[in-house]
Design goal:
The chain has 9 helices and 2 strands. By secondary structure, it is mainly α. It has a single domain, classed as Alpha Horseshoe (Serine Threonine Protein Phosphatase 5, Tetratricopeptide repeat). The protein is globular, with a radius of gyration of 16 Å.
Length: 205
């Protein structure tokens, strides 16, 4: 069992995520159209393809690799959600800069830092029915875990449970908050996008 992840690990994980986002674009567009602009899937695919082009050139320094991914993603994504994801990646990049191996036990902490950075950038809070809630659920579930397959499985399950928990609640952030009543009974598109990403990671093992 490997106790650390490297840029090679990151490259493989991102490849899976990119493929999943490509396959989920139409679904995410439809979900987003119910409460937003209807372009979430398109935006994520654009950003994902920019990251894909960078994969062969990522440096061994994990932090710098994450930074390059964040920069590539935000350059072409062009959406608020994409900017938030890039903010989370930049937070992880800052925490891992200068290292070529990162302990799996740090995943929960990295998720915590990313959630806080994204909340500060967006002005959102936990409980607003956004991707922040799903990330925090993954953070809590992965705390203390050191085995990659277990991390992927519990994170995926935690995000699924978060979706179930918030489905009956109104949205309180972003454009969806304007249609708060309409959002009751519907999944937040950003949460669903994260769920597709955790599914991709869970399929690695």
């Amino acid at each position: 069992m490997t106790t650390t992840f490297t840029t090679d690990t990151l490259r493989g994980a991102l490849g899976r995520i990119i493929a999943k986002l490509n396959a989920s674009a139409d679904e995410l567009n439809l979900l987003d159209a119910q409460l937003g602009d209807g372009d979430l899937g398109v935006s994520l695919v654009r950003g994902a393809r920019a990251v894909e082009a960078e994969l062969p050139n990522l440096p061994d320094d994990v932090g710098m690799a994450l930074l390059k991914c964040a920069q590539a993603f935000t350059k072409l994504s062009g959406s608020t959600y994409g900017t938030l994801l890039a903010t989370g990646l930049m937070s992880a990049a800052k925490a891992t800069k200068g290292r070529t191996e990162i302990a799996w036990s740090e995943v929960s902490s990295l998720l915590d830092n990313a959630t806080q950075a994204m909340a500060q950038r967006s002005g959102g809070e936990l409980g607003d029915k956004t991707v922040l809630d799903a990330l925090d659920a993954a953070r809590a579930a992965t705390e203390g875990l050191t085995e990659p397959s277990a991390l992927a499985a519990v994170a995926d399950r935690a995000v699924a449970e978060c979706l179930d928990r918030f489905r009956s609640q109104p949205a309180r952030q972003g454009r969806a908050r304007i249609f708060a009543d309409k959002s009751v009974g519907k999944d937040d598109p950003g949460m669903v996008a994260l769920k597709r990403m955790t599914e991709a990671l869970n399929q690695i093992h």
